[in-house]
Amino acid sequence: MDKSREKRTILSVLAHPDDESFGMGGTLAMYAENGTDVHLICATRGEAGEVDPEFLDGQPSIAHLRETELHCAVDKLGLKEVKLLSYRDSGMTGSPDNSNPEALINAPQDQVAKEIAEHIRQIKPQVILTFDPIGGYRHPDHIFVHQAATKAFYLAGDPAFKSSYPPFKPGKLYYHTIPRHFVRFNVRLLRLMGKDPSKYGKNKDIDLTQIAGQEFPVHVRINYKAVKDKKDAAAACHASQGGGGLPRGFIKWIIWLLRIKPEDQFMQAYPELEQIAVKRDLFS
Predict the structure, then answer these.
(1) Given 35, 73, 118, 165, which residue has the most CB atoms within 10 angstroms?
(2) Looking at residue 137, what DSSP letter applies?
């Protein structure tokens, strides 16, 4: 087959409903609009997310509500398909949800990697997208998904891994990263306001100082200004998480930044690169 005419496919592997919209949603929408098949794997249904009672009226559970919001967002972004895994939201570090035996972080990581690898073989994406090594802001589910998706990337192409589909090795693996200069600015701002940046958020469970100190190279920047309205519409689907206005906690600062500069940035994990001129296309 002529590679220049081969169908382009992206698979994004994330942890919760709203990760796709509040995070790399602009990139997903842009490629979908340009004819790329964009698939999403979501590992949980976001059961541990904080939801105001008004949003639960008529809903059987938080999980059902958040899954409904996810499908709304997937439609707004123009994604081809979403696959939900059967794990439970683990909550932030130190929350009671961490100890639930069904929580994602308590699952055997090799088992989760094999599930993702099976989907990779079925979908055959050239590009895989997931969280960076610290899960953006050190959410335990994000870190777990980063590790499991990275294992799955290599496992999918390994002939020793037996599954329903033949081996398939994607061409590229990228990690979505948060602009560190922005995090460092918020650390300084909070200190000027007399607040502790190591205990940020409603539950004081986000340490911005650790996030600010962790640098990752940027190999690709995607400007999604042309589809910004689609990203905003997808975020609005997650009304229970503040998507109709500004989301809660740390995420609201990231959304605020991206509204000023609609750009996603990615570190290329495979093939490994020396720092080079920043690319503008995930497939280049």
Answers:
(1) 73
(2) H
pTM: 0.89
CA distance 276 to 187: 29
Sequence length of the chain is: 284
Give 77's contacts (C-beta < 8 A, 6+ positions apart): 20, 21, 25, 28, 29, 32, 38, 230, 231, 234
Provide the 10 A C-beta neighbour count for residue 101.
7
- Better pLDDT: 133 or 209: 133
What does the pLDDT average to over 43-56? 92
* Burial (CB count within 10 angstroms: exposed 0-12, middle 13-18, buried 19+), residue 60: exposed
Token code pair at residue 275 = 């720092």
> What is the SS3 assignment for 150-194?
HHHHHHCCCCCCCCCCCCCCCCEEEEEECCHHHHHHHHHHHHHCC
Whether 115 and 106 have beta carbons less than 8 Å apart is answered as no
Q: How far apart are CA 184 and CA 164, in angstroms?
A: 46
Residue 18, Ramachandran bin (φ over 0: left; ψ between -120 and 50: alpha; else beta): left
What is the average pLDDT across 111-117?
98
**Sheet-wide strand order for 127-131:** 81-87, 37-44, 9-14, 127-131, 172-177, 263-270, 220-223
C-alpha closest to that of 149 among 129, 171, 165, 126: 129
Q: Are 246 and 255 in contact (CB under 8 A)?
A: yes
- Residue 259: predicted pLDDT: 58
